[in-house]
Design goal:
The protein has 208 residues and is an alpha+beta fold. Strand 1, helix 1 and strand 2 form a beta-alpha-beta unit. This is Glutathione S-transferase family protein.
Length: 208
């Protein structure tokens, strides 16, 4: 059986758990990595030399990088509804996955790490936190306008991997103590995601 290594408070681990559950795959979740098990020692670094979670251990080998693992899981299960196999339709999903990694991850760093994680590098830097929150809000308003047009999911009527990675980012934004603009389309979108069985099984609603 596949093993997913990493604590469920990690947003990247939750991506993989959610994707695996949506794909209907059997797996074991080892939640204690970075909690009671060290990810910096030789045992873990033999799996991922970066010392980061998540890691997927399967009969075919070991994978790291959350979006890569998510793509593998849906390909393994043949779920082309989650990640289409035609070039443009697939790119339409992956552009939002890349946006989440490249843009949202950079935007929230100071605000989230300073206000939620209480990271010593950020928690006293109010200027960096304010700039981070402003940039984060600007990006989420892009998503607000986009979802106001689809009135469903990221790429239209069908739930895809884009909704896994962006949906978790939305949850993080809503649970970080910053001032936020009004976003009715995002709130309605989150409600649609929250009723999914995979979310109810694996994604705690109060974890940013």
């Amino acid at each position: 059986m596949m093993r997913i290594l990493g604590r469920s408070t990690s947003i990247n681990v939750r991506k993989v758990l959610w994707a695996a559950a949506e794909a209907g795959l059997s797996f074991e979740h080892e939640n204690d990595w970075t909690l009671t098990k060290d990810t910096q020692g030789p045992e873990f670094r033999s799996l991922n030399p970066n010392g980061l979670v998540p890691v997927l251990v399967s009969a075919e080998g070991v994978l790291w990088e959350s979006n890569t693992i998510c793509r593998y899981l849906v390909a393994k299960s043949g779920r082309h509804d989650l990640l289409p196999n035609t070039p443009f339709a697939r790119a339409a999903v992956e552009k939002w996955m890349d946006w989440q990694v490249a843009d949202l991850n950079c935007a929230w760093q100071a605000a989230f790490l300073g206000l939620v994680r209480k990271n010593t590098s950020y928690r006293h830097d109010q200027v960096a936190i304010a700039r981070s929150a402003e940039r984060w809000n600007d990006l989420m308003l892009i998503l607000e306008r986009h979802l106001a047009g689809t009135d469903a999911y990221i790429v239209g009527d069908t739930f895809t991997l884009a909704d896994v990675v962006v949906g978790l980012s939305l949850q993080r934004w809503l649970l970080t103590p910053i001032a936020r603009p009004s976003t009715p389309a995002l709130i309605a979108y989150r409600q649609r995601l929250q009723i999914r069985p995979a979310v109810q099984a694996w994604i705690a609603a109060d974890v940013p």
